Amino acid sequence: MLGAVLLLGPACAGSGNSGESADPGAPSGSPASPGEPADVATGLEVPWAIGFLPDGSALVTERDSARIVRVAPDGGTSEVGTVDGAEPGGEGGLLGLAVSPDSGEDPYVYVYYTADSDNRIARMRYFDGGLGEEQVLVDGIPKADFHNGGRLAFGPDGLLYASTGDAGEPSRSQDTAELGGKILRMTPEGEPAENNPFGNLVYSYGHRNVQGLAWDADGRMYATEFGQDAYDEVNVIEPGGNYGWPEVEGVGGGADYVDPVVTWSTDEASPSGAAIAGGSLWVAALRGERLWRVPLNGGGDDPVARPEAFYVGAYGRLRAVAATPDGGEVWVATSNHDGRGVPAEGDDRILGIPVGD
Fold first, then answer.
1. Which of 44, 54, 83, 334 is deepest in the core (most CB within 10 A)?
2. CB 308: neighbour CB atoms within 10 A?
């Protein structure tokens, strides 16, 4: 596995918006640099998640307005509806979104949101450009001003995965009967998936605040996780795996815990959304204000190569990443209106970045 010393040196810090590799010493066989970013949509308010529809357009959640916005392939935007039960505050609000992969032209849209007393997962039909009646699938996920988790994604197994935060109480991350500080796995109806390791919704535990989920071509699952003071992480997720929080931050937990495959210092990352395209894992960095590319090696004991940073400081805080259906681009959402950024004209925006196929 890659140790922190490999990832924290000056060679990992790129600059500007040229799209050049942050690691001038990268081997000649490394992936080509991503293309020049271009605005897909502007004038959004803290876009948190992006989910593509069968027609090639995408649905985008706005954390603080609780709106869901449709972004057409040509960049046109329209409001689809609002999630009335969402109560934005701090890091909470309307967070994750996932589109059912097998529900045809009128798919279910799944959302993760912060309500008055908890975090919840719900679904609604999307049809005729609007949303049907909300059906709450999971409630009772702990909420707080910080560490609400919130990412939703369908895996290659057709099951729905959700990331939850520790909601400010680190000890709950080690309790497999608690929903906080976990990655959850469930059926599309919100029931625990068959063969979940603890007989409930919990798939992995010992997490502080996971906000990115992605799978490679071999079905290997990656998750990005916020550290506290020392190390942010990328982890390869194993069913029943204990990822150490709050006992361990970063590498070195011993046999009882699963070590991360990538660590960054917290000022380089604060990793949020993640997507796989063009043979790499792409990670949006909030505090780090950059897009990280983590080349994938194809498995084994070293599944990833040295990360490279792009567009450092060029677009501010980056929150969401989603691969387009053809795999040729990633759409990346800024988060400069979230109270911690410095908005530029047109923010918040979604950028389209060519990454190959």
1. 334
2. 24
Neighbours of 163 (CB within 10 A): 28
The domain segmentation of the chain, as residue ranges, is 4-354
120-141 pLDDT, tens digit per residue, is 999 999 999 999 999 999 999 9
Q: Report how far residue 245's alpha carbon sits from residue 1's, in angstroms, rounded to the nearest whole number.
A: 19
* CB atoms near residue 178 (< 10 Å): 21
Within 10 Å of residue 88's Cβ, how many Cβ atoms? 17
Across the range 160-166, mean pLDDT stands at: 98
Look at the pTM and tell me if it is higher than 0.90.
yes
Q: Which CATH number fits domain 4-354: 2.30.29.30, 2.120.10.30, 3.40.50.10860, 3.30.1050.10?
A: 2.120.10.30
Tell me: the pLDDT tens digits for 180-229? 999 999 999 999 999 999 999 999 999 999 999 999 999 999 999 999 98
Cα separation of 53 and 80, whole Å? 13
- Cβ-contact 330, 341 below 8 angstroms: no
Phi–psi pair at 78, nearest 5 degrees: -150, 145
Q: How far apart are CA 306 and CA 303, in angstroms?
A: 10
